[in-house]
Specification:
The chain is α+β, with helices and mostly antiparallel strands and 165 residues long. The chain is 39% helix and 16% strand. The strands form two sheets. It has a three-stranded antiparallel sheet with strand order 1-3-2. It has a two-stranded antiparallel sheet with strand order 4-5. The structure holds iron/sulfur cluster (SF4) (2 copies).
Length: 165
């Protein structure tokens, strides 16, 4: 599948989904949409031409592309990172079989990550399907797998830190 089609399929899956059954922006005054001009959401390969044209695309020191917005956007054209936030579809291995688990992204600055909230089951289900779609193109797959590796490395570091302090 072409990478743009992978992304459009993921967009479509999460078009109407939200993490909770109510607008979680009410908890935090939509803090995740109120970053500054140096804060952005990571773009997946193929997203550059699909997101809202009002969003600025910047490149980080390591060559990743990030979307920097002014705090509002066309919801139908918001980046995938905004749609999955504050969770992440992590590839895991269980009993020798690969599967995808929706996990809290501990890097997210979001009250949902530390609080005990009940996530929408449908959001969790769709998130896993997003993970499967991302595997359907070599470029999106490689990018996604490296994000999973980053996630696991950070978790290991966090465990080490907690053990020593
Ligand atoms: S995802 Fe988190 S930070 Fe963003 S609006 Fe919801 S509660 Fe706030
Ligand atoms: S691109 Fe849209 S959804 Fe994403 S942070 Fe900006 S305003 Fe929020």
């Amino acid at each position: 599948m072409k990478k743009e089609n992978v992304i459009l399929s993921c967009y479509s899956l999460l078009r109407r989904e939200t993490p909770l059954s109510f607008d979680c922006g009410k908890i935090c005054k939509s803090s995740c949409c109120n970053g500054d001009s140096n804060t952005g959401m990571l773009l997946f390969p193929g997203e550059e031409n699909l997101i809202d044209k009002e969003i600025t695309i910047k490149e980080t020191a390591n060559g990743d592309k990030i979307a920097v917005c002014s705090g509002t956007c066309d919801r139908n054209k918001r980046p995938l990172s905004c749609r999955i936030y504050p969770l992440f579809p992590l590839i895991i291995e269980e009993n020798g079989k690969e599967s995808i688990k929706a996990v809290k992204d501990f890097r997210a600055v979001c009250p949902l990550v530390n609080g005990e909230y009940e996530y929408n089951k449908s959001f969790l289900r769709k998130l896993k399907r997003v993970g499967k779609f991302l595997m359907l193109n070599e470029e999106t797959k490689a990018f996604y797998v490296s994000l999973c590796e980053d996630y696991n490395e950070h978790i290991e570091l966090l465990k080490l830190f907690q053990k020593n302090f």
